[in-house]
Design a protein that fits this description.
Elements: H1 7-30, H2 34-53
């Protein structure tokens, strides 16, 4: 004999699993601490300043 399953409970369990999987993906994608964000901003600012200092003359935007 086969086991009888409650389809409502199976549907809800699948929904919970799907939401948990989406939450894990969002944590990996967006879940950074404030310190990490600030460090990335400082690093980006340092790289921008280094690039701006490497130009031989003005950028030509003032012409």
């Amino acid at each position: 004999m086969s086991n009888v399953i409650n389809l409502r409970q199976a549907r809800k369990a699948k929904s919970r699993d799907d939401k948990a999987r989406a939450a894990d993906g969002n944590r990996a994608k967006f879940g950074r601490t404030k310190a990490e964000r600030i460090a990335d901003e400082k690093d980006q600012a340092r790289q921008d300043a280094l690039l701006d200092g490497a130009y031989r003359e003005g950028r030509g935007l003032d012409d």
